[in-house]
Amino acid sequence: MKDLGELLQRLGVARIAAMAVVAVMLLGFFAFLIMRSTTPQMAPLYTGLTFEDSAAIVSELNAMGMAYELRGEGDTILIPRDSITTTRMTLAQSGLPQRGQMGYEIFDQQSALGATSFVQNINHVRALEGELARTISSLARVQSARVHLVLPERELFSRDTKQPSASIVLSVRGQLSSGEIAAVQHLVASAIEGLTPNSVSIVDDSGTLLASGTGTDETSVTAQAIEERVVGIESRMRTRIEELLSSVVGAGRARVQVSAELDLNRSTVTSETFDPESQVARSSQLRETEDQATGAGNTGEVTVANELPGASENAGGSTNSQLSTTLEETTNYEISRVTETSVNEAGDIKRLSVAVVVDGVYTYDAQGNPTYEARSAEELDQITALVRTAMGFDADRGDQIEVVNMQFAQRPDIEVGTAAPGLFDFTRDDLMKFAEMAITLLISLALVLFIMRPLIKKVLAPEARPLALPPAAAVETEEEEEDNSEALVAAAQAREAATQAWMEQAKSMGESQVKAIKMVGELVEENPKQASLIVRDWLSSAA
């Protein structure tokens, strides 16, 4: 205890206070890093939940004893990242989240005993709406969906039937294309008997009508679909022609613009053609008749004797008989007939117009100065022939093509190609990794230089010895020391001055250490993740 008291007295109050402050700050710093490193990293379990689903999930998490956090007014729940998969499986076993919709499990929660047919029909419609909403919500671009079905019942003794219809409200990420809208319509129409895609109306959460649901023809083309088809045709043809010309005149040396005109009329043509040259005997009928007639030999004469009664019997002349045969043949022929029905759908290409601008040729002299030269007419004819073939030129359709050679405003000094990545061509991920490494290295150097190094230096420094007496006083005896009181007073004063100087030095060093620790604390607050990684490395190395 006496040695400890002498050590404390030798250190002084200022030095002890500085060491205490440094120790407290170091303990707080390491405690903060340990808490940050041991705290589990939270990640979203579910986002965009309804209040009903959030309440049910929170109740299940409380029963499981799982730590969680609520964000975004309760629509987002965060749990430890390493427990997300198992928690989702457990919640899925309980039917959560329901996304605000009830599916076929509605029949599991109710007893059919005592339920009327009206209630059963309502539950059936609710189940269909819930299942369709869940299926639509599973699409990548759809956040949530709400489905309403109208399934009319056929009245007794009625021949007229009403077609079912559906209306859908979607909450989407970004904007849906016409193909995605049509996919939702066909998805719902295929799940409901008698429902057609054109009877499904779709509205987004901002009130924009995506599909009217009033169409009567499934092959009708909307204005948006027509515009997308025109843009698609022009883009594909422009890309095709530019790729073809880039291999001939060089990349970036040709500009192509395509204008497509579509035929938006849908027509059905039925034609019937008869070919008189191709006759085929279908049936043949042959009829033969015989007729026999008899008379007197002088039948050619008309006399009074011949007209008298009994003249034929008493006439003494000879008789004449006549036999006639009739042959009749009837043949029925069929002429070949061709019936053809042609349906021309809307959206066919009516006419194409292509404009091509080609840059000239650059030649370089000995000094490297470029000289522009226009392309020859033969080259332009060859380019025109290539473009005509690539676009599928049809003169009967009225297609137009124009190839012009003009000098570009910006001269391509360097040919554009697929060059290999350079040594210093870093991606964004590489830069982020380098930044993390630099911050970690900076924090490590600050800890070593401003905290660990001064502490080690203080520990290894020799203990300060009191100032030695002058050589003349050291060799004096005890009796001489009593006689030389003035020399002792001077030595005490010198010792006190040295102690005061040492205290000032310790105070300045303590202030520098406090500033260093404060700077390290600011670095840790700005980059807690890198600081926690450093502490983990220290703990693992110490272990």
Structure description:
Helix 7 (178-191) links the parallel strand 5 and strand 6 (200-204). The two termini are 34 Å apart. The protein is elongated and about 215 Å long. The strands form five sheets. It has a four-stranded mixed beta sheet with strand order 4-5-6-7. Strands 1-3-2 form a three-stranded antiparallel beta sheet, with helices on one face. The relative contact order is 0.08. It is an alpha+beta fold and 543 residues long. It has helices spanning 2-11, 13-38, 51-64, 84-93, 106-109, 117-137, 178-191, 223-249, 304-307, 311-314, 377-391, 428-460, 471-474, 478-483, 485-526, 528-542; strands spanning 42-46, 69-71, 76-80, 142-150, 165-172, 200-204, 209-211, 254-263, 267-296, 319-344, 348-358, 361-364, 370-373, 400-405.
